[in-house]
Amino acid sequence: MAFTVSPQGPGLSLDSAPRSLWGGWNLAAPVLLILFNAVLVNLPATRDASRWMTDENGPVEMLSFILMIAVAWWAARLAVRHWRDDKLASVFWSMFAAGMFFIGMEEVSWGQWLVGFETPPEMAAQNVQGEFNLHNLQGAHELIEPMRVLFGVGSLIGIAIGGWAVARNVAVPWKLWPWFAIIAGLSILDMLFAHIEVRQRIEWTVSELMEMVELLIAIGTTLYVRHHLKRSREV
Questions:
Q1: pLDDT tens profile 41-88
Q2: Do the domain assignments include residue 120?
């Protein structure tokens, strides 16, 4: 079931409802990824392997980087494709492409981990990890948690407006709700646990899952953009 907009006004339409509200593999995949990582990080025998996977320049971060740069390219193609028929969508996809390119490059410190150049002393002094990026600068680092929450919640709003005619070229498809619900939920918990007392093991586990959450963001946005690329070819 979803909201639709007709000449008579907004309403509900069963025709636009997803075949399965549980999303099939779109539910299983993110849940299994999170559970797999949670188990690995909590078992002493596999904890080192989990940290290797999610470490700086590790497999999870590099896969996130590759997907985000690919998403930026695909979003730029959508911006060009919609320029004539939907200017608002074109502007949105242009901003989305720029944002994903920025986030992707921040993941690898603008190539520092790939090329191996030194951080300028002035930036190193202000960066909590001594890296060549902006998100770890003092003051900006504290914004990472709320930005994850904003992304997850914003994506769920993108699903809610799926029936609005004006959003047809940018709305998030229903089938992706598990990816963004898990992103939003874990990000909210991570932010809350910084201000409320919970069992140390729970707080630590959620904190350790944040790199995997960033991979979910990369995969979720990949599925989202590919959906719209396919749709734009069919229209």
A1: 999 999 999 999 998 889 999 999 999 999 999 999 999 999 999 999
A2: no
Domain encompassing residue 224: 23-107+139-234
> Own/partner pairs for 167-172, CB < 8 Å, 24+ apart?
169/78, 169/82, 169/86, 169/89, 169/228, 169/231, 169/232, 170/89, 170/92, 170/93, 170/228, 172/224
Band of pLDDT at residue 139, cut at 50, 70 and 90: confident
Residue 182 falls inside a structural domain: yes
C-alpha 148/C-alpha 101 separation (Å) is 16
Domain count, the chain: 1
Q: What is the Cα–Cα distance from 24 to 190, expressed in whole angstroms?
A: 27
